[in-house]
Amino acid sequence: MGTVNSTLAAGPWDGFKTVWASFEFNPQCNSSRGCTHVFKGVVYHERNYFTKSDVVIKKQHRIAKLGDWKLYIYRCTTGQRLASKFIRHLQNNHNISQYKVRFVKPIEAIIDEWSSFTAIVARFLKFKLGKDEALLIEERLRGKFVTFVTDCGSGINREIAVLAAFAHFTYHESGGELVVCNLQGVEDQCVFTLTNPVIHSKDGNYGDTDRGADGIDEFFQHHVCTVLCSNLSRPSGDYTELISNQELPPPYEELFPDGPPPVP
């Protein structure tokens, strides 16, 4: 044990070949599922103390090995790939260009040194610290952290119609193989930055939160389509009665009262 928490060099990340992280002694919070501890920290770019970025360091409750974060990273990269296609879909089919959806790009890093103080915190919170333990580095999100669309398709309010349509779009774009949901993160000037999504897939390849075809069906039982879902495919089955009993989706003019700006 030492005096600081730090990782070995990892990368590439954020345009840099290698970075390494230093982070606080005690976790700021735990994940909603209670299996991840989140620390505030900074990364230094290629051992340069004058070039750094604010990040969070995530630690699994158990001692993770290199590769144990693979599915977490895979969900984020899958979400980003589909988000890029969705932005083009909004521009080409709805003449909307002001909204952006992006996912963080996390990387794994190996612990270099745990501080003695964190060892005390770990005993109190009943988690273990491991030598050569694998941690996750991702950018620190600024602003109010919100779950905009849950893993079963519910939304917090009518202002998240864009993200609800994105979740629906992922089903359509994947040919009905999956749906990206549990869309959580922050919004700043129509840019949604998201982290740690849930992906339900027919093959069940996206980790413990992937509920397979049942998860996809449950999503569409709660999802209410808007005009942004026009021409997007849905699973076979009749959900008309269920949808008609929910609050009607807002009209296009209410979603975008000033009208969509022209595509640049």
Automatic annotation (TrEMBL):
Keywords: ATP-binding, Kinase, Nucleotide-binding, Serine/threonine-protein kinase, Transferase. This is Alpha-type protein kinase domain-containing protein. SUPFAM superfamilies: Protein kinase-like (PK-like) (SSF56112). InterPro entries: a-kinase_dom (IPR004166), Alpha-type_PK (IPR051852), Kinase-like_dom_sf (IPR011009). The keyword RNA-binding does not apply. GO terms for molecular function: ATP binding; protein serine/threonine kinase activity. It comes from Dreissena polymorpha (Zebra mussel). The keyword Nucleotide-binding applies. Residues 5-237 form the Alpha-type protein kinase domain. It holds the Pfam family Alpha_kinase. Gene3D superfamilies: MHCK/EF2 kinase. Transmembrane segments: none annotated.
